[in-house]
Amino acid sequence: MQDLLREGKLGEIARNATAAYVSTCKRTEKDKIYTTLEDFTRADSKRRLVVIGCTGSGKSTLLNAMAGWRYVQSAETDYEFRWKQKTKQAGDASVEVAPIFETRAATDSVTKKTSYANIEYRGDPERELIVVDTPGHDDPAGNDIDSKAARDALGEIAADLHNKLKALGHVHAILVLHNDVVSNRLNPATYQILKMVDEKFSKAGRSVWDHVVIGYSKCNAFETTWRASLESKKENLRKSIKDKISSCTAKIPVLTLGGGEIEPAPPNADESDGFDKLWDFLQCAEPLDTSQLQPFEGADVKWQKMIDAKDEAEAKAKAALIYVAVLVKLGMVLATLFWRHHMLPSWMSLLLLNLPGVVDELLILLVFVYWVGPSDVMYSVKHFYDGWVEPKARPYIQMVTSTLQGGSHGTAGMAKAKEE
């Protein structure tokens, strides 16, 4: 121990142990969808990209293409687009992995709640990125955007996104997809989302518009229709956004993004799909604080309450699946603390940092709760109590309660008799 102190290695060992512990608390598994609020609080400290777009804009397709999957047309499949499976190492073997973001032709959004995944950008292990996927903001089940049902559903989506962005703490860029490069008209719901973004980040300490990127989706390199008058369309789109949102003073980058390929590649295929420019933008972007997102006010509070109720229901459903594992771990921690305190000689107990009082035990329990997840521990204990303890204890609780109530009534009667 003294040698380690002299060589200054003890601090290094402590830092490495702390880093290893922190990494176990993070959600770092690649190509896995994370959806809960607890997951968002434990996101890793990589570059972070939020993707927003209307239903059918190709969000999920682009996200899969960003994560390294290939979306290919070929003569073998009668030129129908199909995903090329990506392979991963599982021990000594290579296994094929299906795309992580679900894609299909549908009138309503495939993505139903805000989620994120850790990916390798375009399949490059050196370019790690967190991508946040959001539901189609004009979804709700085919309703007109001006209808009350559509506005309420849009409010729910906004509240869910608000909570989870705030849990992240910061993001680096917000990619807004525009799926109609030919007409160049933004969906009215997209303008509403842009206004919401402007209002929500009003106290972020920097202009949110320095972090916004517009992406023309479905601009595949082997196609040519979308290329007509492209530069003038970009300028018109920027002008349209600035006319509608006065606080937008930045020159927003407008990129062409297309995940589709064709085999064999045509002679005029090029690299103008914008993915490299998007990565360069992400690399240069400073963190945009999301912890100061402005709260919902007035009538919009109902959306926040609805999302809070959904988050609680999701946490309870998760606890029903994991409560046994959580309680076993908690029992092992408590048994270790008991063994350390009561069954070891004092000198050996001190070597295990068993200090006088209960402060060290409380700290160990707090570390355990943080490691597992506060909401997971709370709802697991509550699920165990509601399912196993409360039904068996209810008769005794009712008996004690009735006895106490009877005693209080008798005492009150005696007091009244004395007064009379």
Structure explained in plain terms:
- The structure is a single chain.
- With 420 residues, the chain is α/β, with parallel strands linked by helices.
- The chain has two domains: 26-295, Rossmann fold (3-Layer(aba) Sandwich), CATH 3.40.50.300; 315-419, no CATH class.
- Helix content is 48%, strand content 14%.
- The chain is built from twelve helices and 13 strands.
- The strands form four sheets. Strands 6-7-1-9-10-11 form a six-stranded mixed β-sheet, covered by helices on one side. Strands 3-2-12 form a three-stranded mixed β-sheet, covered by helices on one side.
- α6 (188-200) links the parallel β9 (173-178) and β10.
- α5 runs parallel beside α9 (301-342), α9 (301-342) crosses α11 and α9 (301-342) crosses α12.
- The longest helix has 46 residues, at 374-419.
- The protein is elongated, with a radius of gyration of 28 Å.
- Mean pLDDT is 78; it is low at 139-146 and 414-418.
Work out the radius of gyration: 28 Å
Largest sheet: 6 strands, mixed
- What share of residues are in beta strands? 5-15%
In CATH, the homologous superfamily of the largest domain goes by the name P-loop containing nucleotide triphosphate hydrolases
CATH class of the largest domain: Alpha Beta
Q: What's the SSE pattern?
A: HHHEHEEEEEEHEEHEHEEHEHHHH
Spatial arrangement of strands, main beta sheet: 6-7-1-9-10-11
What name is given to the CATH topology of the largest domain? Rossmann fold
| General shape | elongated
Instruction: Please tell me the CATH architecture of the largest domain by its name.
Output: 3-Layer(aba) Sandwich
Low-confidence stretches: 139-146, 414-418
Summed up, the domain count is 2
